[in-house]
Amino acid sequence: MADEQILLKIENLVDEERRLRKDETPENADRIVDIEETLDQCWDLLRQRRALREFGRDPDAAIVRDTGTVEGYLQ
User: Is the CB of residue 65 less than 8 Å from the CB of residue 44?
Assistant: First the structure.
């Protein structure tokens, strides 16, 4: 997935999240959690691609990591 595609996916997910937060229901809350996890995966993938590119490697070698890995990062 190209950087532009990842950024478009992020933009679409953020828009959906904003809509759902305006009318939070139990169903929306579950979807919001899914969106947040997917956003974290997208940002992680984008960071991987940029790092690979920066060091002269193929950005297409970046992989989508599972949510457990992405959510487990220490800040």
Answer: yes
CA-CA distances (angstroms) from residue 13 to 5, 7, 8, 47?
12, 10, 9, 18
In the chain, where the domains are located = 3-71
DSSP-assigned letter for residue 57: S
Residue 20's pLDDT band, with cuts at 50, 70 and 90, is: very high
Q: Give the residue-averaged pLDDT of 54-75.
A: 90
Instruction: Look up residue 61 and give its DSSP letter.
Output: G
Cβ atoms 20, 14 nearer than 8 A: no
pLDDT greater than 90 at residue 18 = yes
